[in-house]
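Recall the central idea of this unit: under ordinary conditions, the amino acid sequence of a chain determines the structure it adopts. In this exercise we apply that idea directly, starting from the sequence alone.
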Amino acid sequence: MSDFEQLIENNLAALRAGKAIAVCVENWKGILANAAWDAVLEPSAQTELENLLATTHPVLFFANERQLVQAISAYDLEATDDLEKGKWLRMDGVLGIADQWLDHRQSAQVALALDPLLFGLIRRLRAPLVGFRIGT
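Accordingly, the structure predicted from this sequence is:
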């Protein structure tokens, strides 16, 4: 098993156990957790993420456009170009995500996982991730 595969497996095990994981990808350093509506976070991860939520806005990472279309009630296909360029966009009508990551309009900042680690985690977890930037 390659080092990358081992990293994916270790992070998947942590995410499935309800933990938050620290990642450093491209020019983004942050904390990630399972964002699905039915995700159960362990108490220490919940507290850590709530503390971050008080100071910064979360971003929801999706593996690809197909997963994003399933999660956004009125997805505008014109947004795909911007997302594929690495932009983060605020979208309304987010479905299947835990309420704590959404604002009062059921909206959130979303992004496509362009990094292989994030993409692999989301695909294998079969759920979007919520992330909080903690540095650059």
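The beta strands are 21-25, 28-34, 59-62, 89-91, 108-112, 129-135.
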